[in-house]
Every structure is written in C-alpha cells, then in structure tokens.
Amino acid sequence: MGKGDRGMLPTTSAAQVQSQAFAHGSNAPLDAIPESDPAYPIVSAIVRVVPASRWSFARVMPTGDLAALLASHGNPDDLSRLAHDEFKRQRMKAKTGPRIAAILSPLGDFESGITLLFADAHADFGILTLLRTTELGLFTSSEVGMLTFALDSVSDRLSALRLYQDPRIGTPEPLGKDLDPTSSETLEAASYVLDRDLEIVLAWRSEEQRRIALTGLRTRIARRLPAVLEETVRELTAAWDNESMQRPGVARPVPFLVVRTQPLSGPAGLFIGVRIDRFQAPNSLTEAAARFHISPRELQVLALLLDGRHLDEIGQLLHITSSTVQDHIKSMVSKTASRNRSELIAHVLGWEFTPGAHPS
Hints:
This protein has helices at 14-23, 29-32, 39-49, 76-93, 141-161, 227-236, 285-292, 296-306, 311-318, 322-335, 341-349; strands spanning 2-3, 54-60, 66-71, 99-102, 112-119, 124-132, 139-140, 163-165, 172-174, 189-194, 200-205, 219-220, 249-254, 257-266, 269-278. The chain is of the alpha+beta class and 360 residues long.
C-alpha cells in the first residue's frame, strides 16, 4: 500500500494536463486516423486517458512486417524508421508476448517515452509509442497503470479476433481459440481512495507493475487520476452531496477500463473509494457474427478489414471484386444498425460505450 505523494514534485491538474495535451497534438487521432480504421478506437481511447505530445501506431502484419503507420504528426519517413527500429529493439529484449516498456530508441527532443507492443504468445499485432516533451511532463504512476490495462486488454482482444481462412472448408476459424475471453481468472486492478476534491489519498495495486521493462522510464507519483477517469468519478459521485444518494457506481469510460466507485465514511468524513479494472470482453468475433446474423463470407471480409487490409487487397485474397467487398460491408453496416464503417467496427467489437452506463 502506497500513500499519495503530497510534498515532492508539483503536479499539474487534470484539466491542465488535458488542455496541454490538446495543445501539443495528442488529440490528433481524430484527424490522423480515419474513423473506419480498426486502430481508431484503440489509439483514440488510449490517448484520451494518457495524453502524449506525439504518438505513432503501426500494425504488425502476419508476415512480421510493419504496415499502415499512423501518427499524430511528424515526418512519415522518420516515424516509419522509429517504428521499425523500436519494434526490433523491444523484441531483442523480449522475443514474444505483450510488452510495456520505456522507449528504447533515442528520444531526441522528448523527455520521456513509452512503448506498448500488443501481442500474445504466438503473434504480434501492433506497436504504439507515446512521447512527451517537457511541457507536458513525465508520465504519472497512475497513467502507467492504465497503459498496462490497455496493453493487456487490447492484446487479448486482438488475439481473439485474429482469423484465418481455412482453405479446406472456406470458413474462418479463430487463431488462439484455446484462449477463453470469458475466463474467470482474476484480473489486475488498481484501487484508490480520493478525498472530496478528487485528490488521491491512498493508492495500491493488486499486482506489481512490470518494473523490469519500465526500469528506464522516469515517472512522477500521481496526485490525481487521469482526466478522463477523474471526470467519470465526478459523474458517478455527483449526487453524493445528498446522503441518501451515496451509492456505489460503475462506468466504462473507455473500451479497456471499468471504473467502480464506493462511498467510504470514517471519522475524517466522506471519502471516495475507486477501483479500476481491465475490461474483459465476453464476446468473440464469431459470437458477434451470430448475434448480428453476419454470413461466413461477410465474416471473412470483416476479419481482413480488422487486420488492416484495404478493399482491393480483401478482394484479391477472397477472389472477389472490390465492389462485392463494398457490398458485404454495406450489408454488415445495415445488419448492425450502424451509420458507417466506424460504427460497424465498434458494434462487432463491443467497443461502444456511454459514460455512466453499466458495462455489458
């Protein structure tokens, strides 16, 4: 159990951090990534919780090559070299599996950097780098904890969604199907006690963070939760001024996190207990297909779309025309009651959410 730091480094408020983040480009997922891209809900949600001065995301294709580099800003060639170099450096340290680590490539003008390598024991799915300048400040201990949740949640989801086409029967089968996304194993959680001003009084983790990989990362002890989570706690406890309304609450503010609040009363008055868990989705892609009546051929199109393939590539792999691919996508948009491809992806992946709503 660790006590919140109240006398060491000065801490920027949550609102200031958010406004600084926008000023330094971390809101760029809205511009840099088309909403139809499967990476959109992943990167935009992570950067909402942990703002960065610059970020870049690259997919790792089944061949092991990096493709479809997406970034907030910067020279594309420089960012591509950084992504390839960082991927090689991280894999020299750990050959397989998901990894969160201090960035191993030169930081240049940046003060701090974190790499998230989304993977399972068999395959790599993507690499995300987050860089911060002095203006935005060091990553906080609570932000690192939330990134750990994001790493595990997204790696699990991408592992469950990676499909291949069985040439014998022409229908998709899940890779890593021995992994049970509804497993009842205990997930890592972060717990906090906040005062009525939402400052952290106490903080502890059910498991230690991956300290070996993060040894080279300079951080500061958090005195507040990340801004998105603090706003969620504020909404869940808005009615607590009325003693009869001091009830537990639950919300899913971003796809990979569940936030629970609990009133804590004692001699010093009312405090807010907060537990943050990694969200573990109960539905696989095949279950979503059954729920929305998506056909086997449409499911093949969807799997390749989620793997970052363009319409022409999907058509070539499935031996159909691009217009037929587009027809399959339109059919799935209709079946899922979506308005566009972005909503289709959100629906089948279970990534849609409403602050304050119970997680499904």
